[in-house]
Amino acid sequence: MSFYQETLRYRDFDYDGFFNGITCEDIRSIIYKDRLSELDYLALLSPVAEKHLEEMAQRAHRLTVQHFGRVILLYTPMYLANYCVNKCVYCGFGVQNHIKREKLTTREVEAEAAIIAATGLKHILILTGESRQHSPVSYIRDCVKVLKNYFTSISIEIYPLEEAEYAELIAAGVDGLTLYQEVYDEAVYGQLHLAGPKRDYYWRLEAPERACRAGMRTVNVGALLGLHDWRSEAFFTGLHANYLQNRYTDVEVSISPPRMRPHAGGFPPRVVVSDKNLVQYILAFRLFMPRGGITLSTRESAALRDRLLKLGITKMSAGSCTAVGGRVKGEEPAGQFDISDERDVRAMVSVLYSQGYQPVFKDWQMLE
Amino acid sequence: MQDVFHIGGKELTSRLFLGTGKYSTNQMIPKIMEASGSQVVTLAMRRVDTDFAEENILNHIPANCVIMPNTSGARNAREAIRIARLARAAGCGDWVKIEVISDNRYLLPDNYETIKATEVLAADGFQVFPYMSPDLMVAKELAKVGAAAVMPLGAPIGSNRGLKTKELVRILIEEIPLPIIVDAGIGRPSEAADAMEMGAAAVLVNTAVATAREPVIMARAFGLAVQAGRAAFLAGPGAARQYASASSPLTGFLRED
């Protein structure tokens, strides 16, 4: 059974009815359960649970320290190419946006890699837009071969691949996948992805599972917050992570809770997801999956990131740049979105230490 | 009483092994080692970063401590073997703790893959310390293929639940001619003392110390508890009885002959 079939169980679910039936008493008992059911998780995402955020935060903090320690893994993204054939109404790289299209040569990849490696980072996330013509798997594989000389862990955030293609990149040195479904609601997904291969909801939804089957070590899923009702989207993200963890027990599964940021094209969020909402999501997920990773990017402000740190985060980006070749090129090409926390790696390291957390640069090492 | 601990080709005076994960800074490590008296420290090879001196955990380990790199992150024997060899190449010595985990939900070790890795690495000259789920047949096999010790879990790793597997560990202590080191699950010094009193050769603790409000004080408490438990074991505690022994035994007349 695929995750899509799992989602059908909740196809006509009455969220409002469910939320209306949740009491403070329910929330208090769920917070201290050893193991939460899917509907316990949904209850923690309810409006009623907003009254219990402090209690949830205390428990989330304790669980995170117990399972992960006072440790945050640092990584940074590197954009390889921004060619894209999709027409996604909310994305700065969308084919409808007239931005300068670029693709790094392997020599430029090496130059960026050297700059990043000099900051001490060992984990890198490489990204491309969706264009099999401009950034085929063979191109990504060539970039990975260069990056292997600088980093001990390489993750990809690219278009969905076939299982054999994932295996090919794993063999080349990739160990992590980030792939956001963007929107789990199938109807809304259709409204926001107007053209291009990304219109295929199922192909994208089942890509993380294909990566697990191919032997990926870490898999990170997420919904882009701001495109649809956040409570149900957070619920499906958790279900997706839990589904993968239960079936692929040797994979380290994590989620990201990315909120929409300004970008070229100027699509305003359809739904405002407040800081309080974001906190509730992070806490509820931590209680639902005590060992699941939670990744927080520089989309969020420095001030907020410093406060979210203790609520369950396990991995943070630092020194980010969302433009292709942004670190080596003098000019400022258009990024996928504007980053908010612009602190460099040094600054992040001292912030983490000052908060009583150890920044970890290396948490995996390629074995071949 | 002279109580030298001979293990893996070394002579130790402390029977507390400590982990290094989960601390807010690596600078805690020497303080923890000193406070506890521990002489053996395990560290995840996946975290060892030799490129930057200040973040390199190896630079924070006191010179008189034995390093036991572990294969955290290995999903099968092949990966564990590879990580062990990388550790030796990085200058971490020939001790290695085999940790093969293919279930991230419970973090229970894969005994079958652990035996395979132990056999290859022992033949390759390593002092192999396999972390395992307590099972007599597996422990016998580990002894047969050349393990230096057997490290059964007390409870799932990081759970602080205590010595939940006590009866199974007791059987290993009685039946296996190797040091039995209780690894994982021990949450309190009293549980460490309990394991030592029962005859465990040593205990390994990480989460209980690293996540304590005062790790240095907790490290000291564990050091004392392990010493106390060991002394009690050597002293040979009287057997526990369900009832008090009668001071006027009913069959006393039989001894009069």
UniProtKB/TrEMBL annotation, chain B:
Span of domain Thiazole synthase ThiG: 7-249
Molecular functions per Gene Ontology: thiazole synthase activity
Single GO BP term: thiamine diphosphate biosynthetic process
EC number: 2.8.1.10
Assigned keywords, A-Z: Cytoplasm, Schiff base, Thiamine biosynthesis, Transferase
Reactions it catalyzes: [ThiS sulfur-carrier protein]-C-terminal-Gly-aminoethanethioate + 2-iminoacetate + 1-deoxy-D-xylulose 5-phosphate = [ThiS sulfur-carrier protein]-C-terminal Gly-Gly + 2-[(2R,5Z)-2-carboxy-4-methylthiazol-5(2H)-ylidene]ethyl phosphate + 2 H2O + H(+)
Pathway annotation: Cofactor biosynthesis; thiamine diphosphate biosynthesis
Record flagged with keyword rRNA-binding: no
Classification via CDD domains: ThiG
InterPro entries xrefs: Aldolase_TIM (IPR013785), Thiazole_synthase_ThiG (IPR033983), ThiG (IPR008867)
Active site annotation, chain numbering: 97 (schiff-base intermediate with dxp)
Enzyme category, top tier: transferase
Similarity comment: Belongs to the ThiG family.
Full protein name: Thiazole synthase
Provenance organism: Desulforamulus profundi
Phylogenetic classification of the source organism: Bacteria, Bacillati, Bacillota, Clostridia, Eubacteriales
